[in-house]
């Protein structure tokens, strides 16, 4: 295990893997990165990152962006005509956290399709794709997400991704994959990221979560798709200048931080096993596949906010999601000793 570095005496922050800080190698790369104006002649470090990212997911081209939310919005704008439907899982991050941009900026309609742990009911998806566009324009995009945040970091099998893409392709509908934590999914499956995303038309992934870069996400797809997305990025105010300063950290993240995500998964499993031993209704370790746990506290004496407050008093930060759920996300600043401390605190409070 890599340990909690310089933060071993500080709070255990499980609110998100976005709290990770850049490594020493990232900071050095940022200090020495060759720079240019990304929105004019191009920034050489950004170009390297975009090429590296596209190669890792086996797509023709990539585009560096400030955030994953912008990447997903650009995918919608580049693929979909205003008024069309985006067929999407009800628990997808697009619906729970990004819907304002989907509706207010892109002007498209989220049409939810029954799913379980990020996997569509294929019969329901087929019906949604085949629905006659009478009172609405019809499907313009099918949405996938892996690992799936709302489902507790569950991983969508590549076979299911292939089935969904085949069904959509028969109707001439593109498929986008929200892969904010794509490399967590790849590590959990033991396959290259490109294997997961091979059949999709576009993919977004972040370097600023478990990969520990301070800023940034990538959008990847065909050269024509990325050319359109690049123009739309400018429209949204996402064109950057000497962005190589942050792109350099993204390169280090992709080159050095992917394999160690397995450590975060192991810590998450240690947490799940310990919490299950306290109260089996909290979490089923068999459903913890990556670095996210969603705890059900509905059968305890406290609601989620009260649990979050109690844990905070002991230096443990978690996210309350509604009245009955806590989200815990492991990352490189949370080691096995920290996991044991979290479990012991739960046991004492319970």
Automatic annotation (TrEMBL):
The keyword Lyase belongs to this UniProt entry's keyword annotation: yes
SUPFAM superfamilies in UniProt: PLP-dependent transferases
Molecular function terms from GO: L-allo-threonine aldolase activity
InterPro entries: ArAA_b-elim_lyase/Thr_aldolase, Low_specificity_L-TA-like, PyrdxlP-dep_Trfase, PyrdxlP-dep_Trfase_major, PyrdxlP-dep_Trfase_small
Cofactor(s) of this protein: pyridoxal 5'-phosphate
Region of interest: Disordered: 1-21
Aromatic amino acid beta-eliminating lyase/threonine aldolase domain segment(s): 13-296
GO terms under cellular component: cytosol
Protein name: Threonine aldolase
